Amino acid sequence: MGKSLDALDVAIVLAAGEGTRMKSKTPKVLHFISGKAIIDHVLSQVIKLNPGELRVVVGAGREAVESHVKQVAPKAIPVFQAERNGTGHAVQLALADLKVSGTVLICAGDTPLLRSETLAQFIAAHNEAKNTVSVLTAEFPDPTGYGRILRNEAGEIVAIVEERDASDEIKAIDEINTGVYLFDIESLRSSVTKLKSNNSQGELYLTDVIADIKATGGKAAAILSNDYSETLGINDRSQLAECAAIMRDRINYEHLLNGVEIIDPTTTWIDSSVKIEADATIFPESWLAGTTTIGANSIIGPRTTLMNVTVSTGASIIESNCVDCEVGSGAKVGPYSYLRAGTKLGAGAKAGAYVEIKNSTIGEGTKVPHLSYVGDAEIGSGSNIGAATVFVNYDGVEKHKTKIGNEVRIGSDTMLVAPVSIGDGAYTAAGSVITDNVPAGAMGVARSKQRNILGWVLRKRSGTKSAQAAKAAGASESSE
Ligand code: UD1
Ligand code: MG
């Protein structure tokens, strides 16, 4: 590997293909792996090489691909290939108005596992050998479908032969063309214009320029990479799943080395964008996605989904689903809870079992332990929300806010009909339907007074097991 990053004048990513075998309305390169589109993985690695100019050839699904690329790589210049006449044609178009000379890296938009380190090594080797063209190759256990590398007795690359144009003897070669190349731009420009489509697909093959470059005095080399899995391409959903699993393992491995405890890496899916501090523990079947960050000593899972969630240190989230929210240090969530957008759980707060919260702030140490719905609320610190409390935030037309102070005790099964506010230290009686504000220190009671109709069961349900039990307990039929 080169000591410093070697200069790269231009990078071209080919992404105009149809992706027919994906059988999808979504363009192939926009399918996701570890929270990013396939092409994002390629672009992020290529951008790390700091190319002077980056071009992306788009065609199938042009609008979607182009607008996506604009978001993730604003400096990339899209090149439109209206008809897919092959990789050679795509490169002709990409070079058409290119003013720069020097070295160009060409790779495909559907090989998401390629790492910038490998590309940097490839560039260093290319520059050191002063090649006109270098092809990155790999030895595949099953080379079916790929272009095969033909070398002469001296071991020099002679040509690349596509599977469809290959004899049985050539098909037996297991060294393949990964589709990653480095070229001297001027030599490429002159050779690529001479390409002919006299092959089984009637396309202009980029791979055919190698023979021409050699014939015109250029130096060509095939450089073998040591990890073939990095160059796996995605053509169908099975390869998508295969690459996703490799990417998952790669991400998990890095977290493990950084001190994160992942109990079962094979069932833990962590997006490449997620950050986790050492000594956090992730239990099986969890999915951590988007901008999620996890603090030290937190416990996540099993079976927990976190999408754009900030989890502070020492929190625990068990068998729950959380989206766009914050969980304070030492806070506890779950099992079986759903924290929706805008939930802010303070330090040491609790959203226990079967609790749904959205767009609400839960103060420090406040507990919502069981079976509640909290919506559009602001709750102070040290309060307790009794089991099965419902924040009635929706009047059928609009949403309203509920405000609850510090050290409040909301009785079980309270309906808090918003807009309403409960003062500091106030209580509500269990089963109340609270429609008016409760002042600080008051007990809000809003339910009818209980009356007991004595002897009712013995009179109205005589002969039942309940009547027998009542009788045995000394009850009489009398209503007095
Ligand atoms: C190509 C190589 C093959 C190599 C393989 C590696 C050629 C002729 N063959 O084959 O040697 O082993 O990649 O994966 O180059 N594309 C365009 N415009 C086109 C055609 C393709 O932009 O007109 C893009 C595709 O979107 C894709 C890349 O170029 O990203 C490769 O095209 P694909 O059709 O997948 O090439 P393969 O047949 O796999
Ligand atoms: Mg093809």
Bound molecules: uridine-diphosphate-N-acetylglucosamine, magnesium ion
Count of structural domains: 3
Task: Output mean pLDDT.
Answer: 96
| CATH architecture classification name of the largest domain | Alpha-Beta Complex
Give the percentage of residues in beta strands. Answer: 25-35%
CATH topology of the largest domain: Spore Coat Polysaccharide Biosynthesis Protein SpsA, Chain A
Ends apart, CA distance between termini: 96 Å
* Main sheet properties: 14 strands, parallel
Layout of helices and strands, plus pairs?
Elements: E1 10-15, E2 32-33, E3 36-37, H1 38-48, E4 53-58, H2 62-72, E5 77-80, H3 87-95, E6 103-108, H4 116-128, E7 133-139, E8 148-151, E9 157-161, H5 168-171, E10 175-184, H6 185-192, H7 209-215, E11 220-224, H8 237-257, E12 261-262, E13 269-270, E14 275-276, E15 281-282, E16 287-289, E17 293-294, E18 299-300, E19 305-311, E20 316-317, E21 321-327, E22 332-333, E23 338-339, E24 344-345, E25 350-353, E26 356-358, E27 361-362, E28 367-370, E29 373-375, E30 377-379, E31 384-385, E32 390-392, E33 402-404, E34 409-410, E35 415-417, E36 420-422, E37 427-428, E38 433-434, E39 443-444, H9 456-460, H10 465-472
Parallel strand pairs: 1-4, 1-6, 4-5, 7-11, 12-15, 13-16, 14-17, 15-18, 16-19, 17-19, 18-20, 19-21, 20-22, 21-23, 21-24, 22-25, 23-26, 24-27, 25-28, 26-29, 27-30, 30-33, 31-34, 32-35, 33-36, 34-37, 35-38, 37-39
Antiparallel strand pairs: 2-3, 6-10, 7-10, 8-9
Helix pairs in contact: 6-7
